[in-house]
Amino acid sequence: MTTIADRLANAHLRISQAAQKSTRDPADIHLLAVSKTKPISQIVAAYEAGQRHFGENYVQEGEQKVQALAQQCPDIVWHFIGPLQSNKSKIVAENFDWMHTVSRPKIAQRLNEQRPDNQAPLNVCIQINISGEASKSGCSVDQAYTLAQEISQLGNLCLRGIMAIPSAECSTEQQHQELSAMQTLYSELKQQYSSIDTLSMGMSNDLEQAVAHGSTMVRIGTAIFGARDYSSGAA
Hints:
Layout: H1 4-21, E1 30-34, H2 40-48, E2 53-56, H3 59-68, E3 77-80, H4 89-95, E4 98-102, H5 105-114, E5 122-128, H6 141-152, E6 157-164, H7 172-192, E7 198-200, H8 207-212, E8 217-220, H9 222-225
Parallel strand pairs: 1-2, 1-8, 2-3, 3-4, 4-5, 5-6, 6-7
Helix pairs in contact: 4-5
């Protein structure tokens, strides 16, 4: 029987092989285990196998997990990677270490105002709608430059980089274009802001291509925890 530890090891192997193929250092690419809809027992299993960074998509579910594991797994780094309504921003500001889906000044300002003074600045990534799909969240490439400037002036936030979800079903050429556009934007923003060090793109089905285009953080859920459980009632 394949364990979560086995799947984590396989995910790290895929990252290492992809990095070597692109003549990159595997240590420069971080694995974010996406634990949305998964029970705490599976997060603990991954934690015991050495995983420390976990991503959650749903505000209430994420808050419950953060609080439930605060004592048992005190050095977990929690990333919020889902869409965020402004009326729930306080929960993310108070409970998470990272926020990957900032795409509007209003959300950035609320997170900045609601981040407790006794906590380190909230690490944020700007979400880019790199495919231009109406169904996806995120700002345009052009909007990203202005938003980065605004975030850089907010003292309770730390601008770490950009995040995107490329088209799920597209040609190899379109995938290359989208990933390349993200890589270019990342390079340009990195030159302007010393805090930027994160290009968050790549998931279970396309991490190799993402690594080839400079990704520094891949978000892996299915390949570690199995298919999502939509019956969990998470919201």
